[in-house]
């Protein structure tokens, strides 16, 4: 049974932020007691052992709010449990790359089945495969980008606000997007400016899954166009995607941990976590405004503007990389 009526969002949003804050604090105390800590290391940007797994608070808020998605709620709920659960297992006892990827794929399956990507163009099978790939990309890219205080959660917050703005709060995806933003807002005081708690894989997996799932839901209902939705996570896609491409071209093992993302290189060259978070937030905020401005435009205009934005972002990535070059002694992968 699914709920067809979307409730007024403001009181639930405040409640979501409060629950996220309290649940994250409770998890921090539990993690300290159980010594579930991320220790400093060659690929880490922090200097003190810090509790991990705090993103379980965001995952719990999303699971509770998912009831208002309507059709496909079971796919979102089950997929989030499996995907975030894979991250939680990794936070608790370390999970190797292949089993984690297989669990991520298992979690993506019901979502891709419920809301295939552009089936009218790609066909049923092609739409299913494209949706599956989208979920895996966003889950892993959010995981890759979760290495600096506040970065992953603040970017998901902006995507949630963008979904609410593009699809409207009367839309299930827009309403849940607001809950996503509220949950991230509740978590952020634990992670920024000083990190007393990390999202962990459970958090980054939940955020990437939620961004993918809500985007697919919005597209399936024609609540928003593809190109404006692509703009919302474009900052994460550019940094993670271009970094991954560079590692592939250098024939490096892309599944191994490293410190080659642009934000990691900036920190290695002396930028603070807060400054990096603010710069990325500002750039994504501009992308959000562009997406909202493009919403009433023709699809051709949306496509041209979005591609121009991505080209500009790629140019900025390579320009900034000249000031924050790779340091071979800091960038070596670890197992």
Automatic annotation (TrEMBL):
<feature type="transmembrane region" description="Helical">
    <location>
        <begin position="225"/>
        <end position="249"/>
    </location>
</feature>
<keyword id="KW-1133">Transmembrane helix</keyword>
<feature type="binding site">
    <location>
        <position position="143"/>
    </location>
    <ligand>
        <name>Mg(2+)</name>
    </ligand>
</feature>
<feature type="binding site">
    <location>
        <position position="201"/>
    </location>
    <ligand>
        <name>Mg(2+)</name>
    </ligand>
</feature>
<feature type="transmembrane region" description="Helical">
    <location>
        <begin position="303"/>
        <end position="320"/>
    </location>
</feature>
<dbReference type="GO" id="GO:0009103">
    <property type="term" value="P:lipopolysaccharide biosynthetic process"/>
</dbReference>
<keyword id="KW-1003">Cell membrane</keyword>
<dbReference type="InterPro" id="IPR000715">
    <property type="entry name" value="Glycosyl_transferase_4"/>
</dbReference>
<dbReference type="GO" id="GO:0046872">
    <property type="term" value="F:metal ion binding"/>
</dbReference>
<feature type="transmembrane region" description="Helical">
    <location>
        <begin position="56"/>
        <end position="89"/>
    </location>
</feature>
<keyword id="KW-0812">Transmembrane</keyword>
<keyword id="KW-0472">Membrane</keyword>
<dbReference type="GO" id="GO:0071555">
    <property type="term" value="P:cell wall organization"/>
</dbReference>
<feature type="transmembrane region" description="Helical">
    <location>
        <begin position="124"/>
        <end position="142"/>
    </location>
</feature>
<feature type="transmembrane region" description="Helical">
    <location>
        <begin position="278"/>
        <end position="297"/>
    </location>
</feature>
<dbReference type="Pfam" id="PF00953">
    <property type="entry name" value="Glycos_transf_4"/>
</dbReference>
<dbReference type="GO" id="GO:0044038">
    <property type="term" value="P:cell wall macromolecule biosynthetic process"/>
</dbReference>
<dbReference type="GO" id="GO:0005886">
    <property type="term" value="C:plasma membrane"/>
</dbReference>
<keyword id="KW-0460">Magnesium</keyword>
<keyword id="KW-0479">Metal-binding</keyword>
<dbReference type="GO" id="GO:0016780">
    <property type="term" value="F:phosphotransferase activity, for other substituted phosphate groups"/>
</dbReference>
<protein>
    <submittedName>
        <fullName>Lipopolysaccharide biosynthesis protein</fullName>
    </submittedName>
</protein>
<keyword id="KW-0808">Transferase</keyword>
